[in-house]
Amino acid sequence: YLYTQLSINSNGYSKDFTSNSEILRNDVVDKVSKFKRKYVDKSYYKKNQGHPFNNKALVERLKPVEKYKQEANNNVEKDLFELGLVQNVEEQKIKDEGYKVHAYNILISNKLDLHRYIPDTRNSLCKNISYETNLPSASIIICFFNEHNTTLLRTVHSILDRTPDNLLNEIILVDDYSDLKNLHEDIESYIKSHKLNKVKLFKTERREGLIRARIFGSQKAKGEVLVFLDSHVEVNRGWMEPLLTRIKDKKSNVVMPVIDIINPDTFAYSSSPLVRGGFNWGLHFKWENLPKGTLSKPEDFVKSIKSPTMAGGLFAINRKYFIDIGEYDAGMNIWGGENLEISFRIWMCGGSLELIPCSRVGHVFRHRRPYGSPDGEDTMLHNSLRVANVWMDDYKEYFYNQNKHAKDVNFGDVTSRIQLRKELKCQDFDWYLKNIYPELILPSDDEERLKKKWSALEHDKYQPWHSRKRNYIDEFQIRLKNSSLCIQSAKDVKTKSSLLVLRPCIKSKNQIWYETDKNELVLAQLLCLQAATPNPILYKCHELGADQEWKHKEGTNSPIYNLGAGTCLGVSKRKVNATLEMKLCTDPNLSTWDFINV
Ligand code: LR7
Ligand code: MN
């Protein structure tokens, strides 16, 4: 549900965001997409006939070019498409079970090397910056509850691989009383047998929730700086130096890396645009565009950018400063709200919160949170009430107006936090809104004000989000090989979630597809083919890739592979009206398809 809150699309962000200028686009994004385009290069399909997944030549062709390998510091990159392929029913079981517990694809995580290549998503100007070598050293705190072990260990190795030794004091893993069998023991023995001396594993005595688990971890830490990370991330090259530099400049600077996207279904790593943190009156965090003019010169893309709030999971703070401003509110439970609380507190009590564009860390953005709170409490509401009552003065009424039943909810005792606010002589919330977040829309705003605020966060340029794949067959029918049957929507194309069936090939719009540069197969220029169990469906294009991302050869006799599902398009029977199904690609009776240009 975080997914709906943030309305993430393929880049993890709402469509409304600007792509941050020509510079970012031409430089980083374009480099990545040129690289990606090789994957779908038409000539490649011609050269490599045969089964796209068992074909050695194809697998070779999909491996990164030498140059990228070198950049990866000799970390091996395995091809995600090769790894995602579900080989048999046992693997399918592992994958399904993993989705239930972790809400991401553990089959890929297990097969993917613990040291892997990820693209360097920084603006190229970042590479010209030389940082002081005499920087403070950091304790990295990672709390986890039932994290999948390979994903957690990849997090740890990415840090060990990409952080200069002298800047890394220790990595503190806090197991928040996980109840997954063997998880704690597995991690413990891995650390020991691999002699990961800087990694320290702790366990809380009961389930604390991420807020108290972080306080617990921070109290074990010895480094001058604390870096908090989620347990399913991969840090990118040069991520640490710019964070520490900014904190060394000023102790009260709290800094965040750009959060790149690791796709939960495919583990593909992709770049995020520069956006800042905001919130709405339901006290939900949201991403938003940078104020107009923030990025006007090339240098602006590497300078720190002030942000009204943080997403919560990934930031660095001077350890002493963290203690001085009151750590976290220990009365908050499990998940939610602490990110706005610490953001308000930092700004209102004299600090500053900044995004550091040259520091990049990928995060697995899950479509849902796979755990709840032990007693079923709505901890987001509980925690938000504490934020509102401690920090928001009269503005808390806007929150209460959005949550009619909040008035009756017991949020515990907040006197010590109110006391803290007094002792720190913090500014009031009105000051915060006027000085730090003047763009926030107030329910009381008149039309004129609204217009002004909207235009302040307007984007300069739109990303062409949904473009047709160039250099490819424009429109085509998909015919079952050695038949005269084509794929068609079972119902009218306007119906969402329609199944797909085989019907005699005729050139009606219900059989005409095109393919986008995101490897989507779009029917009647309207809906995307989406893998689902057991039958694929037609669904609104969400641009997240994965279950709407397909691979096939051009021309004839090709299987059609789905990247998120790791399985292939098949049919129940070779007959009119037979329904399409997802099948193991290794099935000896797997259907192949002809792409007929129309
Ligand atoms: O009871 C718990 N105990 C824990 O130790 C619950 C969770 N955790 C751990 C968990 O294993 C993970 O490592 O805490 C971390 C965060 O939990 P997630 O990954 O389920 O949270 P999230 O990524 O969905 O949510 C975001 O908002 C949270 C609000 O409480 C936290 O601040 C998360 O750290 C935060 N994540 C990010 O900011 C990453 C970017 C996502 C966005 C936006
Ligand atoms: Mn997370």
Automatic annotation (TrEMBL):
All residue ranges annotated as the Ricin B lectin domain in the record: 474-596
Cross-referenced InterPro entries: GalNAc-T, Glyco_trans_2-like, Nucleotide-diphossugar_trans, Ricin_B-like_lectins, Ricin_B_lectin
UniProt-annotated location(s): Golgi apparatus membrane
Annotated pathway: Protein modification; protein glycosylation
Domain of life: Eukaryota
Name the UniProt record assigns to this protein: Polypeptide N-acetylgalactosaminyltransferase
Gene name of this polypeptide: LOC115876359
GO CC annotation, single: Golgi membrane
Enzyme Commission code(s) on record: 2.4.1.-
A molecular-function term among this protein's GO annotations: polypeptide N-acetylgalactosaminyltransferase activity
Membrane topology category: Single-pass type II membrane protein
GO BP term (any one): protein O-linked glycosylation
EC top class named in words: transferase
Entry similarity comment: Belongs to the glycosyltransferase 2 family. GalNAc-T subfamily.
Keywords assigned by UniProt, alphabetized: Disulfide bond, Glycoprotein, Glycosyltransferase, Golgi apparatus, Lectin, Manganese, Membrane, Signal-anchor, Transferase, Transmembrane, Transmembrane helix
Lineage: Eukaryota, Metazoa, Ecdysozoa, Arthropoda, Hexapoda
Cofactors, names only: Mn(2+)
